[in-house]
Amino acid sequence: MASETRSAEILESLQEIRSRVQLATTSGTPTLVAVSKYKPASDIQACFGAGQLDFGENYVQELEDKAKVLPAEIRWHFIGTLQSNKAKVLAAIPNLYSIQTLTSTKAATALNKALPEDRTTPLNILIQINTSGEDSKSGLHPLDSETPNADAELTQLARHIVTTCPRLRLQGLMTIGALEQSLNAGAGDLNADFECLKRTRDALASVLSAEFGGEAKARWGEEGTGRLLMSMGMSSDFEAALKAGSDIVRVGTGIFGARAKKQ
Ligand SMILES: *Cc1c(COP(=O)(O)O)cnc(C)c1O
């Protein structure tokens, strides 16, 4: 249990972030993922008590440990570096809701194979895109909307998920983006990373529709609408991301406060 002071602190930050999300939202109801890496289970429990269901974690072991002791109603989003050899551990977490950092067919195949047959819903998958081109960021190359390339790595991975991974659902795309983009952007400036993810999303959607179309369309995107979702925006830039049309924002520091450095 978090202390009363700590709970009150978390709830206040959560309320503030929620209202800022609401104010910045241009359409629909975006998902706020509370990023809880390095934070104790008691912090998550306090948030959960306030109706927060979506939490994001970066480390497989940490996620596994927390999922065991926290409520089964929680929807866990894995947002850390994904290694194919961790697919089994991740797939065994019954309330794992999404993996936002997929970048390889190998990992997709491993996940699809490892997911238990009795799982009632497919695991949501977002493909990570390196929109800033920085070496330090993982992710596949964006697509150019002028000439969407049917052989691009991203298109191939999307096709692989849609055609050969029935236990996965390609829900959309995710980017981290460059920090400078948010620091240097003035009010009204467009964030180049967010615009890039949007172009890539639109290009991928048209490639998929052209290739499959018809009823196959039900196999990707948001349940019901088939829209490919975008996960972009963190504590420092979630408002800009929402203005650019983000569907999923991932906020850690803004809710839980600064993180200790990993030893
Ligand atoms: C840690 C992390 C976040 C949250 O970052 P904050 O700046 O603390 O909001 C979001 N997305 C990813 C991929 C992360 O690793």
Describe the structure in your own words:
The chain has helices at residues 4-24, 41-49, 60-69, 87-91, 105-114, 153-164, 179-184, 192-211, 238-243, 253-256, and strands at 31-35, 54-57, 75-78, 96-102, 123-128, 168-174, 229-231, 248-251. The chain is an alpha/beta fold. It has a single domain (4-256), classed as TIM Barrel. Strands 7-6-5-4-3-2-1-8 form an 8-stranded parallel beta sheet. Helix 3 (60-69) links the parallel strand 2 (54-57) and strand 3. The longest helix is centred in the first third of the chain and has 21 residues, at 4-24. The mean pLDDT is 93. Bound molecules: pyridoxal-5'-phosphate (PLP). Pyridoxal-5'-phosphate is lined by residues 35, 37, 58, 79, 176, 234-236, 250-254. InterPro entries: Ala_racemase_N (IPR001608), PLP-binding_barrel (IPR029066), PyrdxlP_homeostasis (IPR011078). The modification N6-(pyridoxal phosphate)lysine is found at residue 37. It holds the Pfam family Ala_racemase_N. This is Pyridoxal phosphate homeostasis protein.
Distinctive features:
263 residues; alpha/beta; TIM Barrel; eight-stranded parallel β-sheet; 8 strands; 15% strand; globular; pyridoxal phosphate; Pyridoxal phosphate homeostasis protein; Ala_racemase_N; pyridoxal phosphate binding; PLP-binding_barrel
- Here the CATH topology equals TIM Barrel
Mean model confidence by pLDDT:
93
CATH class: Alpha Beta
User: Based on CA inertia axes, which overall geometry fits?
Assistant: globular
**CATH-assigned homologous superfamily:** Alanine racemase
Helix content: 25-40%
Bound ligands, each once? pyridoxal-5'-phosphate
Provide the CATH architecture: Alpha-Beta Barrel
* Strand ordering within the main sheet: 7-6-5-4-3-2-1-8
Helix count, DSSP H or I runs of 4 or more residues: 10
Distance between the termini: 24 Å
Low-confidence stretches: none
The profile of the biggest β sheet is:
8 strands, parallel
SSE string, helix = H, strand = E?
HEHEHEHEHEHEHHEHEH
GO molecular function: pyridoxal phosphate binding
Domain Alanine racemase N-terminal: 16-259
Function: Pyridoxal 5'-phosphate (PLP)-binding protein, which may be involved in intracellular homeostatic regulation of pyridoxal 5'-phosphate (PLP), the active form of vitamin B6.
Cofactor: pyridoxal 5'-phosphate
